[in-house]
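Severity: low
Component: inverse-folding endpoint
Summary: output formatting inconsistent between runs
Steps to reproduce: submit the following structure tokens with default settings.
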């Protein structure tokens, strides 16, 4: 087989940036699959040029003039950048392939801008593409394996792709690892809720941790498992056999229900320094917070008590909430979150605006059926720059008033000082301070206020939110143009619009043909 020149890009950021926070943190958000793809391509005997794009690289200068194939991994917020890069490279004869969350969520749109769009991706699929690829200018091919891969190449094997990214992180260096895929819980808004839970090989995980201990005095691992520690004892035994206490540190996302006092002391002993559990809502019932029969005020008290207990063991805690769920109504959900902030001042609340990412989650079908999904440009679908589902129980201005009020409360100087002074470790205090004064805290308040102002003053802007027009407001177009920088010249004009009901239509066709079969 001819030796190919292959590019692999992991798009962490949406375009060029100079912001300090992104300089400090973006390299720590690198994905795992792009390094896996790079490794598989190299194993097949090809030249691989790999880059993690953090917003500070000149993409055009990172690759040779001529690539045969270019794999791009992107979250939806980086889709306009990915589409622009694809257009640039296709103009030079490169065949382009999109993978990652955007490809899984919006494949029917992405096929218009890439030669291949990948859902679940395994080695056989990549090998097939390498052996027999073609440009597909009319419509890209959408390919998907039956499920996620059951094994991945080790960190040691992928190190030549991981290390350069870590070198870009000036302070904290967080090494991405994964020990399991899918989740046994069935939260209807989650992309992992329909994926069967599977542990990856624990022996590989043990070897990788031992390998990392030869590279760093005390490696900091960021676990990418959707829900860390489901098979808790197996996981902990693996960590304990790979790393004596005090020799590694790690961060993970997990359910509060896993964080019992016994588990917490074992997590602390094994190096857990930060946890990001999902609380989501005070009114939706769910068993992952261990408050399954409680809602409202009662749930706040129980969860606050639990989080206080967690923080006796784990120094950094980000508690995640979703704003705008159908179960929320009036000011109560927002006021209850303020109570939580008062009860546990050291925990940082992380807020997401309700967002339906195409075909990511089962509940998106319901939103599409009710005609509530709005076609905001992908650039803004990052859980905070746009809420693309019309709220069930709020008018837009009313909703943004609540969001601004809660965000301002969360990042008031009073709350910041309490959060920082209640923190027990320097790094955690520093992180909370930087996050508060950066685009995540102060920047977001400014942005929400601007949206609220536009809703009030600009009827075209408001019409777009209400569903009276699909014409994208100039406000958003200007931001995309600014954020893409030079690459905006390659942004495909027709990609301003897409079908917000593509998932529903596709599902209806599949159901209809199943019935007629
Ligand atoms: S517990 Fe977390 S990972 Fe699992 S389905 Fe719910 S939101 Fe997704």
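Observed output (run 2 of 3):
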């Amino acid at each position: 087989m001819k030796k190919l020149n292959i590019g692999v890009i992991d798009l962490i950021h949406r375009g060029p940036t100079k912001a300090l926070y992104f300089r400090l943190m973006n390299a720590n958000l690198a994905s795992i699959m792009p390094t896996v793809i790079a490794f598989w391509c190299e194993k097949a005997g090809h030249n691989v040029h790999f880059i993690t794009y953090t917003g500070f690289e000149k993409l055009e200068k990172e690759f040779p003039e001529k690539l045969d194939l270019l794999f791009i991994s992107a979250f939806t917020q980086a889709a306009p950048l990915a589409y622009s890069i694809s257009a640039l490279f296709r103009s030079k004869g490169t065949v382009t392939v999109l993978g990652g969350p955007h490809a899984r969520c919006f494949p029917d749109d992405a096929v218009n801008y890439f030669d291949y769009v990948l859902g679940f991706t395994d080695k056989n699929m990549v090998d097939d593409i390498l052996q027999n690829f073609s440009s597909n200018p009319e419509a890209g091919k959408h390919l998907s394996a039956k499920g996620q891969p059951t094994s991945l190449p080790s960190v040691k094997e992928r190190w030549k792709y991981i290390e350069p990214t870590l070198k870009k992180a000036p302070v904290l260096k967080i090494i991405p690892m994964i020990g399991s895929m899918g989740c046994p819980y069935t939260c209807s808004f989650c992309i992992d809720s329909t994926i069967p839970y599977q542990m990856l090989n624990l022996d590989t995980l043990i070897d990788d941790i031992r390998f990392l201990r030869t590279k760093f005095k005390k490696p900091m691992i960021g676990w990418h498992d959707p829900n860390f520690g489901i098979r808790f004892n197996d996981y902990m035994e693996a960590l304990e056999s790979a790393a004596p206490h005090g020799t590694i540190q790690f961060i993970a996302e997990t359910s509060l229900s896993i964080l019992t006092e016994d588990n917490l002391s074992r997590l602390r002993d094994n190096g857990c320094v930060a946890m990001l559990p999902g609380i989501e809502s005070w009114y939706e019932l769910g068993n992952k917070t261990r408050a399954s029969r409680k809602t409202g005020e009662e749930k706040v008290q129980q969860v606050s008590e639990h989080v206080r207990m967690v923080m006796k063991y784990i120094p950094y805690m980000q508690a995640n909430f979703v704003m705008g769920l159908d179960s929320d109504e009036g000011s109560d959900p927002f006021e209850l979150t303020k109570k939580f902030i008062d009860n546990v001042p050291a925990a940082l609340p992380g807020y997401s605006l309700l967002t339906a990412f195409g075909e990511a989650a089962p509940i998106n079908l319901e939103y599409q059926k009710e005609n509530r999904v709005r076609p905001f440009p992908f650039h803004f679908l990052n859980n905070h720059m746009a809420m693309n589902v019309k709220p069930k129980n709020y008018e837009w201005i009313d909703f943004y008033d609540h969001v601004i009020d809660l965000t301002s409360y969360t990042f008031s100087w009073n709350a910041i000082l309490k959060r920082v002074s209640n923190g027990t470790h320097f790094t955690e205090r520093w992180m909370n301070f930087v996050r508060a004064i950066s685009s995540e805290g102060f920047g977001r308040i400014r942005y929400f206020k601007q949206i609220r102002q536009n809703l009030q003053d600009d009827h075209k802007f408001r019409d777009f939110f209400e569903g009276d027009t699909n014409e994208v407001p100039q406000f958003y177009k200007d931001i995309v143009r600014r954020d893409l920088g030079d690459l905006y010249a390659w942004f495909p004009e027709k990609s301003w619009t897409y079908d917000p009901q593509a998932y529903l239509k596709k599902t209806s066709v599949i159901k209809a043909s199943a019935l007629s079969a």
